[in-house]
Write a structure and sequence with these properties.
By secondary structure, the chain is α+β, with helices and mostly antiparallel strands. The chain folds into two domains: 4-142, Jelly Rolls (Sandwich); 146-225, Arc Repressor Mutant, subunit A. The protein is built from nine helices and twelve strands. The strands form three sheets. It has a four-stranded antiparallel beta sheet with strand order 1-8-3-6. Strands 2-7-4-5 form a four-stranded antiparallel beta sheet. A four-stranded antiparallel beta sheet has the order 9-10-12-11. A hairpin with a 2-residue loop joins strand 11 and strand 12 (212-215).
Length: 226
């Protein structure tokens, strides 16, 4: 169920007052996708903005042979599909639900009316796009210049920034993706990714408990990643 509390957690809506939030309850609608279901394909017509309410989705591109390159993992209350919404062009990537996921959807016309009434929302979108471009630049640099240790460190730091919780013993987060997916994000083989995770753990840098990871020494990962 969509409510004002849910909308308030989304950065672009965080500064709206109760009256304006009430308006958006009438133009935002929910849609649920099953694990493995494609939300939209690359080159589809783009006419809506998606906000992930629950679950997890991946943004991917594919080469002519069907090989996948995962660009980003999207976590709850993050947006996707905003590029086509702003420029009116076709979708630039494919988005797939990695687990059962619920999205909030805003149609383009309603969104345009939103930014006309609330220019600060447009600034939030531009800031989000800027952060994503910066992340893309960092990933390109990592793929070109970092060794395998740096690439794995980068993925761990990204997940930590997205969903990590600071506790007494370190930063804890769920790495709820397969080793194969993690390797894809890092641009290395699954075997190499698994080996490096074990090395990071044996060196006291991280602690692995099934899919829960605790970063014990963030400075080591940062040195490897940058």
């Amino acid at each position: 169920m969509i409510n004002k509390v849910s909308l308030k957690k989304i950065q672009m809506f965080s500064d709206l007052d109760e009256k304006d939030l009430e308006k958006f309850l009438h133009i935002v609608f929910e849609k649920t996708y099953k694990k493995g279901e494609v939300i939209f394909h690359s080159d589809d017509e783009g006419s809506s903005l998606f906000i992930l309410k629950s679950g997890m989705v991946k943004i991917s591109i594919f080469d002519k042979k069907g090989r996948e390159d995962i660009l980003k993992i999207v976590h709850p209350y993050d947006c996707f599909g905003e590029m086509s919404l702003l420029d009116g062009q076709h979708r630039s990537a494919t988005v797939t639900a990695m687990e059962d996921s619920t999205t909030l959807i805003i149609q383009r016309g309603d969104f345009i009316n939103l930014i006309k009434e609330h220019p600060d929302v447009a600034l939030d979108i531009l800031a989000m796009l800027s952060r994503r471009l910066r992340k893309t630049d960092e990933k390109i640099a990592s793929l070109r210049f970092s060794d395998a240790y740096g690439k794995v460190a980068r993925v761990l730091l990204d997940f930590s920034a997205e969903s990590g919780v600071k506790k007494n013993n370190g930063i804890v987060f769920d790495l709820n993706i397969s080793r194969e997916t993690m390797a894809n994000l890092a641009g290395i083989s699954r075997e190499t990714a698994t080996r490096i995770l074990k090395e990071f753990q044996s060196n006291g840098c991280i602690k692995i408990n099934r899919r829960k990871i605790t970063i014990l020494d963030e400075s080591v990962l940062k040195r490897e990643a940058f």
